Amino acid sequence: MHLIIPESYEPKLSVRETQEAIRYIRETFQDEFGQQLNLSRVSAPMFLEKKTGLNDNLNGVETPVSFTMQDMGAEPIEIVHSLAKWKRVALKRNGFKLHEGLYTNMNAIRKDEDLDNFHSAYVDQWDWEKVISREERTIETLQATVKQIFKVLKHMEHEVWYKYPEAVHHLPDEVHFVTTQELEDRWPDLTPMEREDAIAKELKCVFVMKIGGALKSGKKHDGRAPDYDDWELNGDLIFWYEPLNQKLEISSMGIRVDADSMKKQLKIADAEDRLTLPYHQMILNEEVPFTIGGGIGQSRVCMLLLGKAHVGEVQAALWPQEMIDKCEAAGIHLL
User: Fold this and answer.
1) Structural domain boundaries, residue 42
2) Residue 273 catalytic?
3) Among this protein's residues, is 127 annotated catalytic?
4) Domain count of the fold of the chain
5) Is residue 79 part of a domain?
6) Cβ contact 303:242 at 8 Å
7) Which intervals hold domain Aminoacyl-transfer RNA synthetases class-II family profile (predicted)?
8) Is 56 a catalytic residue?
């Protein structure tokens, strides 16, 4: 457990007012986000059959919560980590066309998460996916989409300021782009997360690109599953968060693998056995569209826009009693 207690923290909204603000932000953001990126809302599962290969493997070390169902035999069922793979199949199944996409309210359990001000075992995010052409699998497409998402967040800042002027946390006016190799070249003696803190503090909002593969040092910046993001065409959207004096990641996203990049990345990850799974066969046979997609943390957006000190102020979850007591003593009221 790691907890930051900011000095002289004073919530600008009561618990009840915060709950109202959460509803307003979530409903307003998803409508504007859907319009900006041409996405339609769809319903999505909370659990999947393990044998489909559709669950998100995250960094490859996290264990999904699993169970069996009475009418499904002994086949393991897994609570989703995210819907990174499921969405791409859903676009195919539901007949989405070029430049059309979907978003969904995704709820997940990540039981191996290290709990702190930003991280919870309960994950709530807008998972989204959009059809692009083979020719649009480029850095330019990725950056243009990031700018669209940033535009929505900036507009939400103004919307929240109008409704809750005393509570809004102001955002920078521009998003910058940097690669993980550029960060290592500049700060070789820092850890990857320290580099992200340093660049976020300097630029205020930055999209860190190319996550998953090895850098010149032979080390990874961070882990990424080898079978959904193309490691050369992905990244994380990060803000410098003054209330806690550190970076806050809002979104992880990327252009998805094609057959060649998936085979290459699975070989690097020593996970070529996955190639026989139904999802991976669809990629190899080009039976699903080329896409770009990602996840945007719902509670983290609320936290960012309201200047909260702990994600538990905008999300009902479970926390160690020690964390609850320390937060309460500091005026941080966990839901």
Assistant:
1) 15-329
2) no
3) no
4) 1
5) yes
6) no
7) 23-320
8) yes
